[in-house]
């Protein structure tokens, strides 16, 4: 029992600050959506797609790539090879910065891309305008995510703070200054980062693509609003599970770096149980107060009614989501990102095949999912 409480304390030492900063950062998005929702349906639809689809593709991919740093740093720290951590951090800056530049066309050409896939013109144009303002936010991700993992701490102000903290000698064992060794082994780092990026991107993509699909429905604004509210609530809860993902990855990688496989298994078990308890709490809140949650974002009675209908599905999704990210954290700590990415691709393919071969349709009379 003492070991359980001790391990739980160590997990929360890592997860606590991470959860707080993630919630604080994501709350900026939630507040923006809430204000937009009370301005009008078109404004909320545009803000929702821009922040929960476009920026989330960038967020999921680069966050996943940054998780490779957890694998390398965690195992090096467990093996007491502290000097390698600073080199790994510099490699991650190089790899993720290049990848973030490759993702820029998604923001620059958001309007024509959305028009091409059949989104309403006025919605697509509004989204394109919002996407341009999100570019600085996108370019901060390579430094934000990697520094968070190096220090296990959000935005440009905190990035400069974390950067200064590292460079000013507060990490003497792990930061020995800039090194040409950062350019050695980039391909190996890129392979692990790419697998991590695909793993987390697909996990984010499954549900966010529903917002794009809802754009093809009758009364587009109402459908997009309702789904975006549900996904925003889901994503808000995900900030907590992502903090536990980071903690699970660190604890497992530290234990494996110290050649303690039994300790790694124990850390994984405690992380999953902790997340499951939190999931049950969120499940009960959503079941009890679905309409109250919707009124944070909008006063439209049609949207509130649709969110109320989706509450049961949302609550079950939130409950299951509390388990899956922590298991991904265990995979990150173990260096199994490529395997999980293959599983995710296979699962996505199975879903596409199932939907294409099944008699799935929408209710054209009520226009509901």
From TrEMBL:
One of its GO terms (biological process) is xenobiotic detoxification by transmembrane export across the plasma membrane. It is a multi-pass membrane protein. Keywords: Membrane, Transmembrane, Transmembrane helix. The keyword Transmembrane applies. It is found in: Membrane. One of its GO terms (molecular function) is antiporter activity. One of its GO terms (cellular component) is membrane. The keyword Membrane applies. The chain crosses the membrane at residues 20-39, 45-72, 93-117, 123-141, 153-175, 222-248, 268-289, 301-320, 326-348. Belongs to the multi antimicrobial extrusion (MATE) (TC 2.A.66.1) family. This is Uncharacterized protein. It comes from Erythroxylum novogranatense.
């Amino acid at each position: 029992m003492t070991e359980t409480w001790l391990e739980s304390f160590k997990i929360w030492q890592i997860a606590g600050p991470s959860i707080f900063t993630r919630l604080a950062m994501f709350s900026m998005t939630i507040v923006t959506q809430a204000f937009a929702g009370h301005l009008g349906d078109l404004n909320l639809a545009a803000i929702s797609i821009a922040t929960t689809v476009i920026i989330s593709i960038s967020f999921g991919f680069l966050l996943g790539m940054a998780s490779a740093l957890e694998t390398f740093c965690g195992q090096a720290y467990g093996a007491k090879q502290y000097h390698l951590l600073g080199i790994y951090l510099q490699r991650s800056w190089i790899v993720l910065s290049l990848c973030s530049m490759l993702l820029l066309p998604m923001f620059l050409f958001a309007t024509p891309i959305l028009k091409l896939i059949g989104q309403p013109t006025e919605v697509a144009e509004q989204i394109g305008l919002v996407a341009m303002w999100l570019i600085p936010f996108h370019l901060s991700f390579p430094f934000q995510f990697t520094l968070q993992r190096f220090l296990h701490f959000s935005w440009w102000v905190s990035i400069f703070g974390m950067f200064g903290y590292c460079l000013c000698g507060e990490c003497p064992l792990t930061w020995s200054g800039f090194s040409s060794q950062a350019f050695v082994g980039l391909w190996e780092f890129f392979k692990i980062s790419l697998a991590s990026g695909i793993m987390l991107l697909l996990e984010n993509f499954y549900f966010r693509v529903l917002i794009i699909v809802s754009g093809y429905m009758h009364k587009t604004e109402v459908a997009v609003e309702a789904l975006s509210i549900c996904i925003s609530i889901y994503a808000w809860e995900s900030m907590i599970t992502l903090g536990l993902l980071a903690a699970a990855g660190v604890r497992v990688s530290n234990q494996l770096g110290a050649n303690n496989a039994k300790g790694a298994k124990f850390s994984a078990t405690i992380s999953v149980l902790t997340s499951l308890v939190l999931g049950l709490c969120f499940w009960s809140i959503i079941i009890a107060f679905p309409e109250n949650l919707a009124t944070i974002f909008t006063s439209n009675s049609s949207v509130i009614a649709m969110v109320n209908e989706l509450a049961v599905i949302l609550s079950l999704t939130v409950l299951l989501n509390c388990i899956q990210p922590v298991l991904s954290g265990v995979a990150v700590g173990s260096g199994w990102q490529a395997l999980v990415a293959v599983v995710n691709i296979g699962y996505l393919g199975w879903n596409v095949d199932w939907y294409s071969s099944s008699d799935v349709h929408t209710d054209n009379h009520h226009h509901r999912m």
